[in-house]
Amino acid sequence: MKYKGLSAAVGLVLLAILAFGFFNYQAAQQAAATATAIAQVNPANCAQFDCRPRGNDNAEMVFVPAGEFTMGSNDGGANEKPVHQVYLDDFWIDVYEVTNALYKKCVDAGKCQPPGSLSSAKQSSYFGNSQFDNYPVTFVSWNDAKTYCEWAGKRLPTEAEWEKAARGTDARVYPWGNEWDGNKANVEQRVGDTTLVGSYPAGASPYGVLDMTGNVWEWVADWYDGSYYANSPSRNPPGPPSGQYRALRGGGWADDHYSVRVAHRYDLTYPTFSFDFYYPTFRYNFVGFRCAQ
Ligand SMILES: [Ca+2]
User: Which of 180, 199, 218, 266 shows the greatest Cβ crowding within 10 Å of its Cβ?
Assistant: First the structure.
């Protein structure tokens, strides 16, 4: 009898511990769900520049009006010179980097290849883990990015479109202005991994595009040519007709303030350059993309 009473009491305590654990688990799940929701697009920005979900992936896009902007920089490598005026027709661009959840839809539809790895710098389970649904997809090649954008009824932005969307028409150095502020982007190994897309609203570009500096490097449509600016057309430059490498823009979570300038083009002659970096098949944990239309 005494023994039975004791085991009942132990049972009750165990039940209480299990219930407590379950509710804690639920609370943690809810917190995780809250933490991974994408920040709302700034309504004031959408009043100035039309923005809305577009394409088959229904990703938020912003309208960039036609007109000239200043491309290139005198403060970077030779491949950023000469500074020149470029006219672009109007276009739409994704406000956010393409996320794991969106890319997974393309994989599930049988159109896209899964990323080259399901991990991130710090997470062994990243792609396919719902906790990271709204983080940028990584380990995608230029070919993967192109396939996704086409599946979404979009395309990769040209290098010129990307730079205009990032800096607007006043030739600024960073999306938010000319002064460096490492708190306005996921850069410099401060986090040491990707962050939820749109986590740095103070770092928005003049059109309200987010994470143009840092988080993940972004594939653009063009072949890479370090001397292209010397002879590129002044209207809607499409990039070189052929090449070996594709261009990546914006720097990533590991990069310093020099590499995340919006005019920055990775210098292929730099002594420590890793020559597989720009190949269209290159996949790594600091490379992603966004689409244009
Ligand atoms: Ca980025």
Answer: 218
Kindly state whether residues 165 and 255 are assigned to the same domain.
yes
CA atoms of 89 and 107, how far apart (whole Å):
32
Specify whether 162 is located in the same domain as 261.
yes
Domain count of the chain?
Answer: 2
Question: What's the CA angle centered on 202, arms 199 and 203, to 5 degrees?
Answer: 80
Higher pLDDT, 28 or 83: 83
Other beta carbons within 10 angstroms of residue 180's beta carbon come to: 16
Query: Are 6 and 148 within one domain?
Result: no
> Is this model's pTM higher than 0.90 or not?
no
The domain spanning residue 140 has which CATH number?
3.90.1580.10
Centre of ligand 1 from the C-alpha of residue 250, in Å: 5
Q: Which of 159, 203, 199, 164 has its CA nearest to residue 62?
A: 164
